[in-house]
Structure formats: C-alpha cells, structure tokens
Amino acid sequence: MANEHSTELDPAAAPAEPARDSADRRYAAQRGAERMLSGVRPLSLAERLAELAGGAGRAAYDLDGRPDVYGDGIVAALEERVAELLGTEAAAFFATGTMAQQVALRCWAERTGNTLVAMHPLAHPEVHERQAFTQLTGLRSVWPTREPRLPSAEEVADCDEPFGTLMLELPLRDAGFVLPGWDELTAVVEAARDRDAVVHFDGARLWETTAHFGRTLPEIAELADSVYVSFYKTLGGVSGAALAGPAEFVAQAKAWRHRYGGQLFQQWPAALSALVGLDRELPRLDAYVAHAKVVARALGAVPGSRVNPGVPQTHQFQYLLPYAADSLNETTLRQAEETGRMLFGGWRAAPVPGLSFTEITVASPALEWTPQDIEDALGQFLKMLR
C-alpha cells in the first residue's frame, strides 16, 4: 500500500457513535446527494423500468419483439455480443457470476480429469461464494501465493501440487483491484500451460483492464481457455454474467447451467440492462481509469491516509483512514444529508489494526470532480468526523 504518512489525524478524536447505517438511510442519502465521488446515484424501480423502456433500451435492442423464452431472443443476442467483444467462439448467459464460476471450474475438472484448482486465497470463490466449489462439486484449491497480488510465473511453476486449472481474478478485488503487468500475465499463463493446466479468467471486472494492459479485450481473453465477465459490476446492469470460450466448452457449460437451475424462463430485464451497459459504459471506461488516478492523488494527500494500490490500475481502489468504520459511515451519510456531497460508500475495518477502508469506484459522476473539489469536500468531511 502506498501514500503512507505520519498520522496527523487522531483516531481517538473520532466520536464513538453507534452504527445507524441502514440500507434505507444509505439509499436515501445517495438519492438525495447532489454530487457523488464514488459510485453512481441508485435508480428507483420506476426509473430503472423507464430507462429500459426508453431511448437507452430501444437503442440497445428491438423492444417491439417478443420476450425471450429459455435463453433465446434477447438473451441469445447478448451472448453473441459478448463472444464478439471477447473474440471467443461462444458465450453463455448466467443469472449469477457465482453459478458461472462453479460451472466453469466443474467443466474444466471433467475435461482435465483433475479436481485441483490453483487460485489466490483472496479469490472470489474462496471469500464470497461460501466454498461452493468444494461443497457442490468436490473440487479442492491450492494457493500458489498468499501475497496480496496475483501469483508470479515462478510461483505457478513451483506449486507443489499438480493442479488442473489455474484461475486468475483480473483484477484481484480484495487485494485492492490489483493487476499484473502484461508480460507478467503472459508468463503466468505460459507457466500453467507448461504444467498441462488450463487457465480460467475470473474477469468480473475484465472490462476495465484494457487501459492497464494496453491490449484489447480479445487479446486479453485469448490468453485464457475460458473467461467469466459480469454485467452488473462496472456496466451497471440489473444482474447476470457470461461465460465465454470455445463452442464445445460453452455447450457443456449450458448443460450444467440447466442442472444448476440457471435455465430461467425469461431474463429480458437483465439481458437488456446488460446491452445498455455495454453501449453506454464500455466506451467510458478508459476515462474512468484515467480519472481514478486524479482522485487517488487528491484523497491520498491527507496525512495518515493510504491509497491501495498507490496508483490505481483500474477505476477502483481502496482508501484507508485511521478511524473506526462506524464513525466513518455515520459521517459519510451526515455529509450527504447536510451538504449534498457524498464522497464514499461503506466503510469496514481493515486488516491493518487502527484503520478502516472503503472501495472507491470512479464512474461518470466522479468525472465532474476536480482535485480542488475533492480537497474541499474531504476537508469538510474530516471536520465533521472530528
């Protein structure tokens, strides 16, 4: 983590207030804020339906046609769009990324005859999926590294167990949305290939990695045997994900999707919102990534704060302050309610004692913030916090 300073902010000065951060209060604060630095203003149900039925939805797909039935129509059109964007033979729509990940790992285990998956201990299946890959499929994981970064080629080559699949989360969210360099990534993939393993990219946020790698989406996806992407992370869709790769693999994945309960009767709201997100957000991501560096510099100027990574590699990064999470959450909401400016999302205790962290997401609303705007609002935030 970078931007470490001598702490002039006194953690003891933060009032010990009870947590009052209810979902309804946060939603109201976000809706009422005139300016948001991290994230986007949430839409009401009526606003989301109007968006899908209005110009954005009609530009994305022919709304005068019939709804999808068990994956045809608009769902099939979305699958074709994703395969084209990633340069793969085919893609399959999934209701959730968790299901897509489990199916991908299961399919590769069947194909390789090896149930051992190499992944990071902070990878999404380890931290956020309640061990579904072990409980549902009987797979087992091995960790090439415990460092807060993706494994190196040497670590993959030296792994002491013969894994069949290497799963790489790009970016690795819980380590701070970190990415390897392009040469590092290609070397890691080659090291896995040398061990006769297949490579799966957990690319929930793969869309925003092109600026860091200096490569197109097809060039990135080509490194892997399969790729998972999300539609509600980054793109702002209602829900849903896609699993992309060779046509034979995708056909197998669709069979398991049915068995896992993912063959829904109709999924047009999720599919339509995904198409809207691909049209609207995908072209803006390079601008978000560039402005994230500006935002990080402004936030990191506060003594005692930390920005992780020191220079953001995507449009998201971690921001840490030496205060209790409850106090930071309360002040975040108070500032939004009283001034109309909302700087942060939710805060949590950091692994580092005495610090709390939040995840900053630089999206369209943040582009309006100058460094001076951030300095002024952050100064106000700290005064309210004390």
Automatic annotation (TrEMBL):
One of its GO terms (cellular component) is cytosol. The keyword Hydrolase does not apply. One of its GO terms (biological process) is L-threonine catabolic process. Pfam families: Beta_elim_lyase (PF01212). Its cofactor is pyridoxal 5'-phosphate. It comes from the Bacteria. Keywords: Pyridoxal phosphate. GO terms for molecular function: L-allo-threonine aldolase activity. Residues 69-315 form the Aromatic amino acid beta-eliminating lyase/threonine aldolase domain. Transmembrane segments: none annotated. Residues 1-28 are annotated as: Disordered. Residues 18-27 have a biased composition (Basic and acidic residues). InterPro entries: ArAA_b-elim_lyase/Thr_aldolase, PyrdxlP-dep_Trfase, PyrdxlP-dep_Trfase_major, PyrdxlP-dep_Trfase_small. PANTHER family: L-THREONINE ALDOLASE, L-THREONINE ALDOLASE-RELATED. Belongs to the threonine aldolase family. This is Threonine aldolase. The lineage of its organism: Bacteria, Bacillati, Actinomycetota, Actinomycetes, Kitasatosporales.
